Amino acid sequence: MSSVQIQCTRCKGVFRDRAGRLQDGYSRQCPGCEVVLFFAEDSQHPFIKRAMRDARKVRKELREAQAARRLAPEAPTSRSSDGRRRTVGRSE
Ligand SMILES: [Zn+2]
Fold first, then answer.
1. Among 12, 19, 69, 71, which one has the highest count of C-beta atoms within 10 angstroms of its own C-beta?
2. Which domain, by its residues, includes 58?
């Protein structure tokens, strides 16, 4: 959910990493060929750029989802509890 797909610039292998970690200055090793990939906002490589963009999008969505949850009003507590009203004086 909160992870993004990363494609290795060397072996073209695809793996995933958490969007929260994929930020400017982050680096990680490819599990396939063990090359170290550097993630920078000004990277010129399309694979890196795409991963950074995806991570940014996922982080934004997560933030918005959290904000929406916070802003959402609490479930309204009904003060009058007349859900089960009993019929009084029900005579034949
Ligand atoms: Zn690789």
1. 19
2. 3-70
